[in-house]
Design a protein that fits this description.
The protein is about 35% helix and about 20% strand. The chain is α/β, with parallel strands linked by helices. β9, α10 and β10 form a beta-alpha-beta unit. It is globular and about 65 Å long. The model has no long low-confidence stretch (mean pLDDT about 95). It binds zinc ion.
Amino acid sequence: MEKVFFVICDGLGDRPIEKFGRKTPLEAADTPNLDKLARKGISGMLHPVDIGVRPGSDVAHLSLFGYNLKTDYTGRGPFEAAGIGMDARPGDICLRVNAATVNKDSVVIDRRAGRIDDTSEISDLLDGTVIEGIRICLKPGTGHRMVLVMRGKNLDAAIADVDPHSVGIKVKACKAVKNNKKAKRTARVLQKFLTYAHKKLLVLDSNKERKRLGKFEANYLLSRGAGVYPNLPSFEEKYGLKAVCVAGAGLYKGIGRLLGMDVVEVEGATGKADSNIAAKVRKAISLKSKYDFFFIHFKGTDILGEDGDCEGKKQFIEKIDAALKPLVNMKDILLVATADHSTPCSLKAHSADDVPVVIASPRVRDDDVEKFGERACAHGRLGAIRGKHLMPIIIDLLGMAKLVGA
Ligand code: ZN
């Protein structure tokens, strides 16, 4: 059975760009290796979740891995908790938190506390607080980002964001979005904690120092994205494939951990456009004998799309192309390359546009596609598929699909 290398170029898909002669960054880029892959493989276009659905990266990845979004997706918080390796368990309520700055009237004046680079002092101060029997864990992520986990009985993640998502607005009180006792209790406990945290942060020495230096104080915790930590079947239970995740950014490591994949660290893998992506590919290849399925994630395409930097996105795609050369030249593997969604530079945000997909293995039927790109792959034999179709196609190509019927 071939080993599967599953490459996701985040936000790869795009729309026509005038200065590229109405080509997309992928079409404009020089990609000899991806084009070779297209010639070897079977190509098509993929709607990561469904036609006309504009997905977040978390939802899109669950869909590509064949999970049921209705039952298996509970919110962003659990992915973030898993992403920083927090000890979260099924049933815990997980939230994303920003260390932020409010004025004396509780109006948000900076959502990221002046992009504070380390929040470990805040988490050390507040981690382990118990309110009404609920234990609250708080851990630092990168920069101003933190993750909060609530553990205890009678909790419900149906609570609204406290983060007003813009400045100049008063912090919202934490409210339940469902009319049930558990959600109301969860909102009440979280609000008590946020108020308690605010009081403690106001008198923190480092905040007094930040104020003296004219910096924004990290004096409030803005929560959002509440979700209950799910109890998902692991990728291995679902498909019988031992999987490993090679990613730089926290969310994608979180996806890997939530699905029970091993997550390996690669030096220089930053989850940004400066990431050493060739090292990630080399790392995956070095583990070839240990795993059956390699989830390799590149984030730069999405970041540059969100910056509206089409030239940078094109260059990053060329960097991906060079990094993939050793995989494209391997004969005995099943190699998939696609994206979790489009991030058009003209939009600086995710769109519902479909994305190109190619699957190469010794067993795939050939088609006439000779280039990897939005235009070319639309002519491929795979046609237009949805994210949920990808894993079943792979499993069938591996010869592991169950017969339906007699
Ligand atoms: Zn994405």
